[in-house]
What we know:
SPX_dom; SPX domain-containing protein; SPX_prot
Amino acid sequence: MKFGKRLKQHVExxxxxxxxxxxxxKDLKKLVRxxxxxxxxxxxxxxxxxxxxxxxxxxxxxxxEQEEDFIIRHKELQQRIKRVNESExxxxxxxxxxxxxxxxxxVDFHGEMVLLVNxxxxxxxxxxxxxxxxxxxxxxxxxxxxxxxxLEQPFFTTELVSKLVKECETTIDELFPxxxxxxxxxxATITMVGEGIFRNTVAALxxxxxxxxxxxxxxxxxxxxxxxxxxxxxxxxxxNSPIPSI
Length: 246
């Protein structure tokens, strides 16, 4: 699948509030075509670079806002787990209900973080592809210098979010039986239609795997191959996925 179609499909599948935050690949592609046939090359390149910088600013602002929110939510979840484990519930039923709510919140939280990592991957890939297209059509040498700049941007730096994702998976594996999580995820595939976090997370995992493993034009600008962690949560996602693995 061509990147433009893959990006369009992914944007349609992601959370509604995120859809305007992705790379405007279609308009940038049109601009590259116009520049390649323009007599005012210098002016056109300046406009192209200006639009790319605006896209980077948009990515960074959105990514940092989400990252800050995730840090706060992670601490709150840890505090909730600690309170439940240290307090004396009035009944076993009350304890199980609270743990069920925590389990659901952790799974949703994990899903949103996976979506953010995918947000970084797909926007970086789009940048690399549109710059490659620009250099090829215009004979320019913009890609190398601009990609070096992209690699230093906050939206490309996913180490903290990836660390929180792993901690989330470890927490679920330690606190909740695999069968319990699997049942909840199975229910999610039935009840969460269209905008569900579960479906979006599975789609994001498959998109990341395709982007990082499946390209026939791998280069030093490409992201490294993706190896999904072997945790119970990831295995539950794959077992219950309504989307075929790539």
